[in-house]
Amino acid sequence: MRYCIVGAGFSGAIMARALAEAGHKVLLLDERPHVAGNCHTSRDGETGVMVHRFGPHIFHTADERAWTYINRFGVMKPYVNRVKAQSQGRIYSLPINLMTINQFFGTTLRPDEARQFIAARADQSITAPQSFEEQALSMIGPELYRAFFHGYTKKQWGVSPTELPASILNRLPVRFNYDDNYFSHPWQGMPQDGYTAIIENILKAEGIELRLGQSFETVDERFAHVFYTGPIDRYFSYSLGRLGYRTLDFEAFVADGDYQGTAVMNYCDETVPYTRITEHKHFAPWEQDRFTRTVCFREYSRQAGADDVPYYPIRQVGEKALLTRYIERARATPGVSFMGRLGTYRYLDMDVTISEALAASDRVLDIARQGGVIPTFFVDPS
């Protein structure tokens, strides 16, 4: 018998490659007509620009193994994510840094002065923030919170920031210097030929049968084990109910020249219906000057329906309770392991997905050599 892997994104491709290199046979399925999942990239036929079809994916990591692995299958070019934000009729840099603070408040503060200035505006009475809003107010005070986070967060998540957990804001730093690099990881870059080419290269191994445009539900074959990277609730036919996701709608448009001068422009005001505009030729600065036209996406966030692409797991109280029930069901189901963002119902950056898939592959190969039972989960999804 052979192994079955459901989903040809990074999680599935890495597991398939590891099994194939160890001499095992693998059937890799994806119901989409392409590999790479939501990381799928392709050239725009009209302009030639490399487009991130399901929204921008910027690679950044502190895991040297993940960085080495992705470079094994493609050329990673230097790329620094410098996000701009439009708020109240002006343009600022994100994450909030010394330039943002001085420009917003019309000051010329030094780092130590800026720390004291922001601390004086922060709500010191909030000692144990429970919500996104409380966390923001306790960190940066009402002015910066209202300007950059309140409206944007309502659009992104579809609920008031008072209903979101404080942990969401932990990933958004405040810097008291002029560093406007959105990420702080030592390795950052973009693939020269796009993410789809990297996944295609990972899958160039004897022993992997790739079937695109076919869902797992239509396969009638017994397998040694199934690695499932699709939505965990879908595996069980949503028998306990559907887990909640936010999805994204993209409004693509083409313009002459350079539309906004940067890759990502956030629109923080609640009155603007979209959350951001991404201009895709700026994600490849080594080639952007060769294009006379440009491709942009306006990005709208909303609750995912049954036929929508699931992007961001909501993981509020109701969803977490339902997830617990699916985890129990999964642990009682032999012969299947759940991996990746959808399989574990977690928000995962690309590098974490790769790191977890590499670690899972190591464990599976050890079990295959020594005997034993492949676990249902390789990380705790709860």
Question: Could you explain how this protein is built, in words?
Answer:
With 382 residues, the protein is of the alpha/beta class. The chain has 10 helices and 17 strands. The protein has helices at residues 10-21, 64-72, 98-105, 111-121, 132-157, 195-202, 232-235, 317-331, 340-344, 350-370; strands at residues 3-6, 26-30, 41-43, 50-52, 59-61, 76-78, 83-87, 90-94, 187-191, 208-212, 225-228, 245-256, 264-267, 276-279, 293-303, 312-313, 336-338. The strands form 4 sheets. Strands 8-7-13-14-15-12-16 form a 7-stranded mixed beta sheet. The chain has a 5-stranded parallel beta sheet with strand order 10-2-1-11-17. Strands 5-9-6 form a 3-stranded antiparallel beta sheet. α1 runs parallel beside α10 and α4 packs across α5. It is globular, with a radius of gyration of 22 Å. The model has no long low-confidence stretch (mean pLDDT 96). Belongs to the UDP-galactopyranose/dTDP-fucopyranose mutase family. Its EC number is 5.4.99.9. Keywords: FAD, Flavoprotein, Isomerase. Residues 147-347 form the UDP-galactopyranose mutase C-terminal domain.
Oligomer description = single chain
* Number of DSSP-assigned strands: 17
Total helices: the number is: 10
Distance between the termini: 32 Å
- Strand numbers in spatial order across the main sheet: 8-7-13-14-15-12-16
Mean pLDDT, to the nearest integer, reads 96
What is the CATH homologous superfamily assignment of the domain at 1-35 and 203-238 and 313-382? NAD(P)-binding Rossmann-like Domain
**CATH fold node name of the domain at 1-35 and 203-238 and 313-382:** Rossmann fold
Q: What string, H for helix and E for strand, traces the elements in order? A: EHEEEEHEEEHHHEHEEHEEEEEHEHH
What is the radius of gyration computed over CA atoms, rounded to a whole number of angstroms? 22 Å
Uncertain segments are: none
Estimate percent helicity. Answer: 25-40%
**% residues in beta strands:** 15-25%
Backbone shape: globular
CATH class annotation of the domain at 1-35 and 203-238 and 313-382:
Alpha Beta
GO molecular function: flavin adenine dinucleotide binding; UDP-galactopyranose mutase activity
Enzyme class: isomerase
Family: Belongs to the UDP-galactopyranose/dTDP-fucopyranose mutase family.
InterPro entries: UDP-GALP_mutase, UDP-GalPyranose_mutase_C
